[in-house]
Design brief:
Blueprint lengths: L1 H28 L5 H29 L2 H39 L15 H27 L4 E9 L9 E6 L11 H12 L4 E4 L15 H4 L8 E3 L15 H18 L1 E3 L3 E7 L2 E7 L14 H5 L8 E4 L4 H10 L5 E4 L9 E2 L4 E2 L11 E5 L2 E5 L17 E9 L1
Parallel strand pairs: 1-14, 2-3, 3-4, 4-5, 7-8, 8-9, 9-13
Antiparallel strand pairs: 2-14, 6-7, 10-11, 12-13
Helix pairs in contact: 1-2, 1-3, 1-4, 2-3, 3-4
Length: 412
């Protein structure tokens, strides 16, 4: 109880410091004539946003549509980040000024600075606000321009043991749709049509269809149900698909949600693999597709049963495994199942933030996941980590854009 109170006091004090320094910066650069208006605007926005944050999601979902609720979250995050940057600029100056005042009491008098010079507080405030505007503008741009800016990443992988009939076999991999975060349907419909136009041999979805509950997919069942491939659409579960992040009234309610989740796949015509395998036949030859339930490192629940999924595949000439969390590759697959040729994962989203061009590939995600975006190779095994189709938390992307992976298998 005491720890909770102390934590609450700390959070409230920190938030108060952010608002205080945010207002100090605005006040310093505002002319006296407009100071009252600036105060009404600043504190009106600050108090309103904080009140909505305290009321939290139940209120937002009841009185705002999904799009407005999502954008409110962005607004709160941007304001918080901007004021934190301002605090980083102004707080050290206040501390230094306080120390100078103490020293001045015991020192000879100093002379004032030259007339016409910009006061130090005003200079710092301007720099702080300009600096804060850069990430704020970037985050806003990431929402407006990049949330549905789908990128088709095309990769060709060569395997010496790939059956001849599958030479040139085209796989579309999707991952991390997170339907509960979507605010628009038109861009999703457009990219589904673009995928079908590629005439893929196989479409594979590697988990996190929803954020929490099966009903999030209701507006999108017909859209994703349009996905077509020669050998069908197959899918697995991700950590968000089990309803683990919801406070259910009873275990039965949670179980019913998962049954509804499985029914969504049936309605879309997708084949959900729950620690299972399927044989894909073409030209008299076969490859094997394996689907693992979520299994990874850290705090995420482990539902995957690898031994169950690989049962009966001992003599398969070529194997593709879908495993949502890429950490499963190093933790289990490479050492225990070295005959898996290709592993397809997602989960990381590339942190939805980073830099990716021909000179530099960086994201905060790389400090958590060794394999976080794109193609990786160890020995005869390949792992492809999809950057994700949707978004979670922040309803946008900066640098690491939403992905549709087009993977072509070639015989070496």
């Amino acid at each position: 109880m005491i720890n909770s109170i102390l934590f609450f006091v700390f959070v409230l004090s920190f938030y108060g410091a952010l608002e205080y320094y945010g207002w100090q910066a605005v006040k310093t650069i505002t002319s006296p004539k407009h100071l009252k208006l600036a105060a009404w605007i600043y504190w009106g926005v600050a108090i309103s946003v904080f009140a909505l944050f305290v009321l939290n999601r139940p209120f937002l979902h009841k009185y705002m549509n999904r799009e407005m609720s999502s954008y409110f979250g962005v607004l709160f995050m941007i304001l918080l980040l901007s004021k934190f940057i301002v605090l980083l600029f102004l707080l050290p100056g206040d501390v230094w000024g306080g120390l100078k005042s103490i020293v001045a009491k015991f020192s000879p008098p100093t002379y004032p600075s030259a007339e016409g010079a910009i006061p130090r507080s005003e200079f710092l405030s301007r720099i702080a606000l300009l600096t804060a505007a850069v990430p704020a503008g970037t985050l806003v741009y990431g929402v407006i321009a990049n949330a549905y800016n789908y990128q088709f990443h095309r990769t060709t992988i060569k395997f010496p043991n790939l059956p001849k009939a599958f030479d040139g076999f085209k796989i579309i991999q999707l991952s991390d749709i997170h339907a509960g975060s979507f605010t628009r349907t038109e861009p999703v419909e457009k990219v589904v049509a673009q995928i079908n136009a590629l005439n893929p041999d196989l479409i594979l979805f590697t988990g996190d269809l929803v954020n929490n509950v099966a009903t999030e997919m209701d507006p999108y069942i017909d859209i994703f149900g349009q996905l077509k491939a020669k050998h069908g659409v197959f899918s697995i579960t991700g950590n968000h698909d089990y309803g683990d992040y919801v406070q259910w009234d009873t275990p039965e309610e949670k179980a019913a949600n998962f049954e509804a989740f499985k029914a969504v796949h049936q309605k879309m015509g997708w084949n959900l693999l729950l620690n299972e395998n399927r044989t894909i036949e073409q030209g008299g030859e076969t490859i094997t597709l394996l689907g693992i339930e979520n299994w990874g490192g850290g705090r995420f629940a482990k539902y995957g049963k690898f031994e169950q999924a690989v049962k009966g595949t001992e003599n398969a000439p070529f194997k593709i495994m879908m495993s949502h969390d890429p950490s499963s590759w190093d933790m289990r697959i490479r050492t225990e199942f070295p005959d898996i040729d290709l592993i397809l994962s997602g989960h990381t989203h590339g942190a939805q933030f980073g830099i990716e061009n021909k000179w530099l590939k960086w994201s905060p995600s790389q400090y958590i996941y060794k394999q976080w975006a794109g193609l990786y190779n160890e020995g005869k095994q390949f792992l492809y980590v999809n950057r994700g189709f949707g978004f979670l938390g922040y309803p946008g992307r900066v640098g690491i854009l939403p992905e549709v992976a087009e993977i072509t298998l070639k015989r070496a």
